[in-house]
Amino acid sequence: MRPWIENLLALQKVDMRIINLHLRLKMIPGEIAKLKQKIESAETNIAEAKSSMQKTGLEIKQTESAITELNKKIEHLQQQSSLVKKNTEYQAMLIQIDNLKAKISEHETAELILFDQDEANKEKFKELEKAFGAEKGGIEEEITELIELESEIKAEIKQLMKTRQPLEARIDSAILPQYKRLLQTGRAPLAKVNASGICSNCHLKITPQTMTETKKEAVVYCDNCSCLLYLEQ
Hints:
The chain is mostly helical. α1 packs antiparallel against α2. It has helices spanning about 5-80, 85-170, 175-185, 210-215; strands at about 190-195, 230. The chain is rod-shaped, with a radius of gyration of 40 Å.
């Protein structure tokens, strides 16, 4: 294999590694953001469950307070009724007491519903906290690993950029511009040609003339995708 091919393959190996590392690096912020969003979403759900639990607890207290006040009113009316002399007034008080008892019954029914809701809220809150407690550590560990990976990738890219400088210096100035143009597309600038004349990049057959030049290991480009060609060994 001629030196120009060996030199380009060495440079290409470094450059393709750099490209792949940049692609991986570009994905990391999004991955970290998704993991952080997962934590925030779980924390929001827990906060909402806690708020619902507190709201129901407050409603239960308010209902109990309302029942207590109604019972006090009934007690007061019952005390007053013993002092009433007119039957009409007495009957009116009994009606008031019955109305108050009816309201107490309504509150007690509502309170039973609130007790059930309170139990459900507490159960949901406990389940969310338990699930988040088990999951949070793993998510935070993933975030830490991604941050470390980001740092490692940047360090490797920096080292590879130093490595590629002497490799690029070996490339013929007539070939280097085309190599760089092809590299900017994100694909490997060099493509193998098999014995049947098929380019490994575009998977199309090159012309017999191009195949002949490739066999001579001359600087030749694919008729279809313009990649630099070399014969598969």
